[in-house]
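Input.
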Amino acid sequence: MRSRNFTIPLAAGLLAAGCVGCTGQGTGDSRQAGAARHQVALKKGASSPSPTPPPARRIDCVQVKCLALTFDDGPGEYTGQVMDDLRKAGARATFFMLGQNVGMHKDLVRRMVMEGHEVANHTWSHEDLTGLSSGGVRSQVDRTQQAIKAASGVAPTMFRPPYGATDAQVGKAVGMPQIMWSVDSLDWLHRNERRNVRAGVNEPEKGGVVLFHDIHKPTVTAVPEIVSGLEKRGFTLVTVSELFQSKRLKPGAKYTHLW
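Output.
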């Protein structure tokens, strides 16, 4: 979400399937039989069990010093690197994605879910929704819902309007909680790694939501230091849904901070 000034082991499984009943010291007949069974399994559509997402975490962010890192406008070429760094730190984040980008990066979207991150809706093509009809707003949102669910198996429950531009009509048409932010890093404007680190580490407060973009290289290179700095300050990095577990969020309402 670009801010604007207003007055955000498949190989192992296949080998196992192909080597049922055979070993390295097996006979040629046993190897042929194993290969034949493998071909039959493939024809029947058999496969190794699919990996499952990690279980939901129960975190009391009223008591714990929680913070939600959010990334807008992806997925893109740097999103995998962001997830690599988050995984190393054991941190989770929320990705507000553009539907038009999802089809090109389905593997990344599925990986988000598999690694415990939250997939969220940021419209199809980053339109200013206040200039659209209710039908136009619903189209932007629904197309993105369908794309993310097709890629990940999960339908988003959180939404962020492009530019933070919203009104009563938009909120009603969207039908999901609208997640804004308490800290805008302005990474899209300055494109400066050191500035991103300072904003990301020093400005957040307990219960806050921090806005970054995973489509800008200076942001992505800053992520490891941002995460390390926040952890040194005692923050637990959570998804938006984890942050608001203690609240009943209303469809169409805007939220910037747990408090």
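The radius of gyration is 22 Å.
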